[in-house]
Design goal:
The protein is an alpha/beta fold and 172 residues long. The protein is built from three helices and seven strands. Strands 1-2-5-4-3 form a five-stranded mixed β-sheet, covered by helices on one side. A two-stranded parallel sheet has the order 6-7. A hairpin with a 2-residue loop joins strand 1 and strand 2.
Length: 172
């Protein structure tokens, strides 16, 4: 007779939940919606404070998110509002916990503060997100295309970008 396996929460999930609880206790205005799914924790944070939040999470005792593993953009579609997301994947190499910060952006205002002063690796991640989605990182030291040619029109990973590009084409 088969028995159900005991359910165990993953340590990374518990650590991330503890981080969110501590952060909410210290700075409740920084913590919007918290999403726990697939063993990962995502915190939606205010755009205006993302740089301050990242600097705090990097240096504060007990958090020590000293590695920004990725920044990526998401286009939720032209029918969605807010349309865009910017996701910051944080990792602590000393505490071994992870956290995702998410900033939501309206189509009319795709500006978000740069975190290149917090993590140097943000430079290329922000440039890629700008190149592919058109998110503008304010005060970035060198915000220009990184993957596509300088004369490229549009942002290739936006959902409203034509599949064949903007160049006229002929099927004959």
């Amino acid at each position: 007779m088969a028995q159900d396996a005991p359910t165990q929460e993953k340590p990374a999930n518990n650590a991330s939940s503890a981080v969110v609880t501590a952060l909410r206790g210290m700075h409740p205005e920084w913590v919007g919606e918290v999403i726990e799914a697939f063993g990962e924790v995502t915190v939606i944070v205010p755009r205006e404070q993302v740089k301050e939040i990242c600097a705090y999470l990097k240096t504060a005792q007990g958090f020590e998110f000293n590695m920004l593993s990725d920044i990526c953009g998401v286009d939720r579609g032209v029918e969605e509002e807010p349309r865009f997301e910017v996701n910051y994947q944080l990792f602590s190499t000393t505490k071994y916990h992870r956290l995702r910060l998410k900033v939501l952006l309206n189509e009319d205002d795709t500006h978000v503060p740069s975190v290149t002063d917090v993590w140097r690796t943000a430079n290329w991640h922000e440039r890629e997100t700008f190149d592919m989605f058109g998110v503008i990182f304010d005060n970035h030291p060198d915000l220009r295309r990184i993957l596509l040619p300088d004369d490229w029109q549009g942002h290739a990973l936006r959902k409203d970008f034509p599949l064949r590009g903007y160049e006229p084409y002929s099927l004959t």
